Amino acid sequence: MGINDAVHWRTELGGGTTVALVQAGTFRSDAGALLGPVPFSLWRPWAEGELDANRRLRQALNCLLVETPAGRVLIETGIGERLDAKNTEMRGYEGTAIVPALETAGFDPASVDVVAMSHLHFDHAGGLLRPDGTRAFPRARIVAQRQEWEIALGDNGRVAASYDQPELRLVADWGADGWAEGDRELLPGVTVVRTGGHSAGHQAIVVRGTGPGARTLAFFGDLCMRPWSANPKWVTAFDDFPLDSVAVKGELFRRAVEGDWTVVLSHERLSPVGKLTPDRDRFRFNGL
Ligand SMILES: [Zn+2]
């Protein structure tokens, strides 16, 4: 089965590696918490058209399907299909979950070799199971940082609120088989880079093409969720280690500029693919 036009965007990186964007619905997230230390007066102008009655922004659930000669990698799984009616309403979750979205795009979830998640918050790891509790990607190794699993299943009250622990316990053994500790190449050209910052075990994913004209694509997870995230100092109030976020964003974004990397944002709905350029003491995200 080949991927068809139902994907939201697709590119070739060289050497037979392609990346397709599949959006797995949207949810709502408190705007003040997302913008963290940034005053309302600064973000009001561009956010106003998007805010709902509860001052929430609409966040896309961006997933990437990477096809390489060595195998297929899915990056992120969205919220999935197991949220009950009350939480679906509370989260403002709408749209098509990752498995039906992949199927619509002509892609068999059983053909995924690796699922890499930036971290295990409910809006990134929710799609690992089907509604009946079976594995959504039966052949896949699932890769998050070992440290992320440990914190996600721990008993810190603030941290636990961001994870769906009963759901994660159902996949903990599956996850343990694929633990990454630090940076690791998952398949030739597909590498996870441990970042921390947003969560203790947060990781970025970098995909490199090969051959003449080879290009690189990076997914920085929730360190770079919307265009405004291009300012390293604009970190969300959800970030557990904000100073780490500021430092690692500055470093990764500098590498993205130097390498002319294509960057895909984790929660931007309308303009999720672009490039970073330096802008005074920060960066600017320029959508394609
Ligand atoms: Zn998120």
Query: Quick one: how many beta strands?
Result: 13
* Bound ligands, named by name, code or SMILES: zinc ion
**Global shape:** globular
Portion of residues in beta strands equals: 25-35%
How is the CATH topology named? Metallo-beta-lactamase, Chain A
The N- and C-terminal alpha carbons lie at a distance of 28 Å
The biggest beta sheet, please?
A: 7 strands, mixed
Tell me about this structure:
- The chain is an alpha+beta fold and 288 residues long.
- The chain has one domain (9-287): Ribonuclease Z/Hydroxyacylglutathione hydrolase-like (Metallo-beta-lactamase, Chain A, 4-Layer Sandwich), CATH 3.60.15.
- It is 25% helix and 27% strand.
- The protein contains 9 helices and 13 strands.
- It has helices spanning 31-35, 40-47, 85-91, 98-104, 122-125, 146-152, 157-160, 165-176, 242-258, and strands at residues 9-14, 17-30, 56-68, 71-75, 114-116, 141-143, 184-187, 190-194, 203-208, 216-219, 262-264, 273-279, 282-287.
- The strands form 2 sheets. Strands 7-8-9-10-11-12-13 form a 7-stranded mixed sheet. The chain has a 6-stranded mixed sheet with strand order 1-2-3-4-5-6.
- Strand 7 (184-187) and strand 8 form a beta hairpin.
- The longest helix has 17 residues, at 242-258.
- The two termini are 28 Å apart.
- The structure holds zinc ion (ZN).
- Zinc ion binds at residues 121, 123-124, 222, 266-267.
- Zinc ion binds next to helix 5.
